[in-house]
Amino acid sequence: MPKPLHSGFLSNSNINVNIVNAKRVSLLDMQQAYSFMLLQEVLIHKEITMNNSIKLSGRLENVASLIPKGAEFADIGSDHGYLPCYVCLHDESAQAVAGEVNEGPFLSAQETVKRYGLAKRIDVRLGNGLEILKDGEVNLVVLAGMGGALISTILDEGKDRLKSIKRIIAQPNVGERRVRQWFYTHGYTITNEAMIKENGHIYEIIAGDKNPTTQEMTEKQLLFGPRLLKQKPELFYQKWENEYAKRQRIIDQMKKAALPNDNKIEAFKKELTWIEEVLRDDSH
């Protein structure tokens, strides 16, 4: 008569059941591990966004506020790439091209984009002005922190890359009239203007939207800004009081020249009259 099986000895059926159960446990562990990994990625992304968020200057924050959600934009003269990184950290649907003409800032922008984990959404390119852009890849262009003459030149030289551009945001350090003149000549209606004071200098930020209907602008509006003329914020008065005094000094110096340029003197005098009128109206 055969001896009974020892209680600790497993039959074939018991072995098969335990193998199936082990596989189930293993599969469950894998699923839990995968879910945990996804959760970790989300938490890491949140940590990067919240703890490593970029602090922009007030000037660039104002520029960023004019970039709509989901924009595909180019920041020309991006320097360290802070503006596109800031926008993309605050808007997960945004895509950007950061352009730089100098290798030093180009490498700095690459490093900034890498640090914030945005290499899939921000393409840093080395090149001159708008030539770095491909046809139709962006719908908005930012040109900030340069003179109005240079901004106008960049736009002129890259006109063939502007076919898909619905909005241009410009922040000239000087020469705002040149920017407005370019917008007016090329079918961009000025839809937003703002002023901000930073490090003792008053900056103007000008946004123009592509419009088939030409915006009519007088010489006076080109100088002061059509929207700023209506809004007249406190900084508007500060700027044009300073500009009035500056123009007076220029006229005085020009009059002392051996051969005074009467045409230029008259042009400055006309602007003095405009400034007087603007500051007198709704005087604060």
Concise synopsis of the structure shown:
The protein is an alpha/beta fold. It is built from 10 helices and 7 strands. Helix 5 (148-157) packs parallel to helix 6 (176-185) and helix 9 (234-255) packs antiparallel against helix 10 (262-280).
Task: Describe the protein in words.
- The protein is α/β, with parallel strands linked by helices.
- The chain has 10 helices and 7 strands.
- It has helices spanning 12-51, 58-65, 82-90, 103-115, 148-157, 176-185, 219-224, 226-231, 234-255, 262-280; strands at 72-76, 95-100, 122-126, 140-146, 167-172, 188-198, 201-210.
- A 7-stranded mixed β-sheet has the order 3-2-1-4-5-7-6, with helices on both faces.
- It is elongated, with a radius of gyration of 30 Å.
Number of helices: 10
CATH topology of the largest domain: Rossmann fold
What is the N-to-C succession of helices and strands? HHEHEHEEHEHEEHHHH
**For the residues shown, what is the average pLDDT?**
87
- Supply the helix-strand structural class: alpha/beta
Q: What is the CATH architecture annotation of the largest domain?
A: 3-Layer(aba) Sandwich
Low-confidence stretches: 1-10, 36-51
* CATH homologous superfamily heading of the largest domain: Vaccinia Virus protein VP39
Helix content: 40-55%
**Tally of extended strands?**
7
Radius of gyration: 30 Å
Silhouette:
elongated
Q: What's the CATH class of the largest domain, please?
A: Alpha Beta
How many structural domains does the protein architecture include?
Answer: 3
What share of residues are in beta strands? 15-25%
Largest sheet, in brief, is: 7 strands, mixed
Give the N-to-C terminal Cα separation: 116 Å
